[in-house]
Design brief:
single chain; alpha/beta; four-stranded mixed β-sheet; 9 helices
């Protein structure tokens, strides 16, 4: 249940265009709704400012579509991460306006908000082209939350000059292999850096573990690190920083 939905109900009650019983019926799913295979947190938007996001990996297309259909009653916009094309087809049956971004594996229901210019910018920076799927998960999530995003892809340690002239209030750095880009950027800028290790790399990268350890052990100050391939988590952290 998003804040807009709740505000609309309260406004209608105050204007006497909706009676109390109808309002209570509209609010009956707070704080959560049990649909058998999932407990939908309908109260999260009121607590944290962001509605519950559906993690699609491991769920069947039918389960994802079912969760979306229940969330649609109380939420103007819905985000599904790690979603398959099959899940998208199932979601379209209950939400025809849904959009699927194949590269990031994200399903979006509802219009994207216009970013507020005064909030500043989140820069999403990748070391290589292979890191873009994780970067797009971060970028689209941040945009879904109403942030302005500047994408700077395929920078790499060898091409760090491509960052010159860019300005941002928070930088999300996404890198696989040895994950060195986060340290380099952290040593050059005065804004918070959120490092995202990716599972991109040869055998000794251990599926992103090498990049994760490199980022955790960075000697550059002001770097926060999220889990391997967790573009969504990086966007959530950046969004909270932008609200300060």
């Amino acid at each position: 249940m998003d804040v807009t939905y709740l505000s609309d109900i309260l406004k209608k009650v105050s204007e006497k265009s909706m009676d109390v019983d109808t309002a209570l019926e509209s609010l009956k799913h707070l704080p959560y709704e049990d649909i058998g295979y999932a407990n939908i947190d309908q109260h999260r938007n009121l607590r944290t400012g962001e509605a519950e996001v559906i993690f699609g990996q491991g769920k069947t297309p039918e389960q994802i579509a079912g969760i979306v259909s229940h969330m649609m009653h109380d939420n103007a916009r819905i985000l599904v991460t790690r979603a398959s094309a099959e899940a998208y087809e199932a979601v379209k049956a209950v939400a025809p306006e849904a959009v699927y971004e194949k590269l990031s594996k994200i399903i979006m229901v509802g219009a994207m908000p216009e970013p507020k210019a005064e909030k500043g910018t989140i820069a999403v920076v990748t070391a290589g082209t292979s890191d873009i799927p994780v970067a797009e998960e971060a970028a689209l999530t941040a945009e879904f939350f109403g942030d302005k995003v500047d994408r700077v892809y395929d920078v790499g340690v060898a091409g760090i000059h491509r960052l010159f002239g860019k300005s941002a209030d928070v930088i999300i750095v996404i890198a696989g292999m040895e994950g060195a880009l986060a340290s380099v950027v952290g040593g050059l800028v005065e804004v918070p850096v959120i490092a995202v290790p990716t599972s991109v790399g040869y055998g000794a990268s251990f599926g992103g573990l090498a990049a994760l350890l490199s980022m955790l052990n960075s000697c550059a100050n002001g770097i926060g690190v999220v889990n391997i391939d967790n573009g969504y988590g990086a966007a959530c952290l950046a969004n909270k920083i932008m609200k300060r």
